[in-house]
Amino acid sequence: MNSYLETNNLTKRYGSFEAVKDMNIHINRGDIYGLIGPNGAGKTTLMKMLVGFATPSSGEIETAEGEHYLRKVGCLIESPGIYGYLNAYDNMKLKAISMGLYDEEEIRSILDFVGLSREPKKKAGKFSLGMKQRLGIGMALIGKPDFLILDEPINGLDPQGIIEMRELIKALNEEKKMTIMISSHLLGELQKVATVFGIISEGKLVTEVTADELKNSYMDEADSLEEFYLNIIMKGQKAC
Amino acid sequence: MLNLIKMNLYRFFKTRVFYITLLITVISFGLLSRLETDPSSQFDNEQTVQEEEHVGIVATEDITAETSFEQLYASLTASGYILIMVGVFAIVYTEQERKSGFLKNLLTTRREKKNIFAAKIPVVFLYTLIMFLGSLLAIRLGSLGRGEGMYEIKSMGLLFRFITDEVILHTVFGIAMMAIYEITRNTIIPIMLAIFGSANLHGMLLNMIESKIVAMRPSLAGFMEKYALSRNLIVTKINVLGDEGMAFPSMNLIVVITIGLILYSVMGMLIFTKRDTI
Q: Min CA distance, A201 vs chain B (Å)?
């Protein structure tokens, strides 16, 4: 396979409801894959299946890493998984111990990287939303993952927080050479970081387009990712 | 698995609930033991009536000047108080992992989901052990200075065996509560069940059904006397250990513990593995 990760007819059913239907996505190594879709389109369900939180009803996930790829995946899905009564260091230490990778220096360096080294004693429950999100990403970085899955990491952040998160994502991709999948409703923001876009609607992949293709081929029809997305979604709805 | 256990132990000692419940337990048992061993309150009919009407932690046996420390300890700890604490702790500890979302961190890096459930069992065991040792210390201190030879430890071996049996039985109860939490994924229902269970209401209900069965088929009386389910529940065994002091048929206890341990652990691990975790 040429891609870092591909899904083959991936499907998730909850009773008679199909949250994800025959999804075939392709992510290359080094991509920042922007996953776009309306609420309830199946973005989070797809991400949950990719990280092993949910078992696919049918279909497959194929990766260049083989069956052990989950060991190299970090994620921030829905909300950061942190204990509010512990500080940032202890939260990270817990995850590191569980992976058998506890290294104080490594944790300090990640905390520094995500900009949380200045408040070592503050309990995570007292963090701002932006700090919690950054801690969530910090937790995902333990074990040096190759692939990072971020579900709406900029949701609820203030403008400063959004800029910090954007810089962090770029740094992870460029400096740490990570492949990243990111979902967001803030399309303007997503356009600033993503290299590929996957648009999904009603559990189905509508289209996959690279940032270059979008710029070269589609920008005649649409001025922005937002407009392109709306055109695609509306076309899909009319076809239905 | 070992890493998950280490992680859980680190988290356990950072959990405030553990220290709070331990402190409350030590203070409660210290005071209770002081009151129960007070010579002025013993053989007092009025006091006895008050105790019978009292709802809460009381000694399950009459405490007299001849009572040994082992009997005093067994009588006080079999009151169901530690059982509720262990049940509620197991539920809250498991719930914290899911509610905080930390569980997601554990799931991304390993395929063996059952280990995540199993790795919490040593924590429940450790919590139970510390609660029993804390209450041992409190009851010992509370019963000191009551007169020469009173409330002495007569057999260290029996005391050790009692603590071992009770700690394991309580741990199995905690595992059952963890499994029930995984089934319901709700805090209120398992906590209610822990409270009802620690009062052995399910045992009483079963006993009533068994009595009806024996009344309808008297030929089953002998069988029921030996093998009735209500006599072989974890909570029944905990109560019987306290009531009957140290004398207890060990083989029966080992069978009940083994079945309970396997049943609840496997049930919890299976549910945890089969269901979507988030």
A: 22
Question: What sign does the dihedral B126-B128-B129-B130 (CA atoms) show?
Answer: positive
Alpha helices for A115-195 (secondary structure H): 129-141, 159-174, 187-193
Q: Is any Cβ of chain A less than 8 angstroms from the Cβ of B109?
A: yes
Hey, is B152 helix, strand or coil? coil
Beta bridge pairs of residue A207: A199
In chain A, the residue whose alpha carbon lies closest to the alpha carbon of B110 is A71
Q: What CA–CA distance (Å, rounded) separates B147 from B244?
A: 25
Beta strands in chain A (DSSP E): 5-14, 17-23, 26-27, 32-36, 58-63, 73-76, 147-151, 179-183, 196-201, 204-210
How distant, in Å, are the alpha carbons of B214, B239, B241 from that of B210? 6, 19, 22
Strand partners, A27: A5
Contact A53, B272 (CB under 8 A): no
Q: Is B60 helix (H, G, I), strand (E, B) or coil?
A: coil
Cα–Cα distance, B91 to B172 (Å, whole number)? 13
Q: How far apart are CA B144 and CA A240, in angstroms?
A: 82
The per-residue pLDDT string of chain A (240 residues; one tens digit each, 9 = 90 and over) reads 667 888 898 898 888 888 888 988 888 888 899 888 888 888 888 988 888 888 888 998 888 777 677 778 888 888 888 899 999 999 999 989 988 888 888 888 888 877 787 877 889 888 888 788 888 888 888 888 888 888 888 877 778 778 888 888 888 888 888 899 998 887 778 888 888 988 888 888 888 888 777 777 666 665 677 777 777 777 765 554
The two structure tokens encoding residue A3? 């891609």
Q: Do the beta carbons of residue B176 and residue B260 sit within 8 Å?
A: yes
Amino acid letter for position B11: R
Nearest CA in chain B to A144: B109
pLDDT at B124 over 90: yes
Residue B216, Cβ density class (10 Å: 0-12 exposed, 13-18 middle, ≥19 buried):
exposed
Q: Do A70 and B111 touch (CB under 8 A)?
A: yes
- The verdict on B106 touching A (C-beta cutoff 8 Å) is yes
In the block, tokens 């108080």 appear at B81
How far is B34 from A208, CA to CA, in rounded Å? 75
